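Bumping with the actual sequence this time:
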Amino acid sequence: MGAIAPFAAILRTAKKNRCNLSTHERYAPKAREALAQLRKSFILMKRDYPEERFPRPAFQIASIEPLLGTLTGSFPLDVKGDASAYPRNLFQG
């Protein structure tokens, strides 16, 4: 998945600089954007590989879905806790 690389790069940079990824004024918006892109790519992949036609890829997708759900659930949408800046359906499975 091409959406993992930007998120991983932001995580590495924030860790190297010892920044809080959820509250830092520079890294937090970038991380939220990268996470939203990751979630969007996952949803598109899930749509493109339905279980009826592609059982093996669908099984692998289903196995990583809880991990992605945990990641998106543990990362705050906004520093103030306000999710109004993001579409509601983007972070829903």
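The tokens above came from a reply further down the thread. Helices lie at 4-16, 27-48, 55-74.
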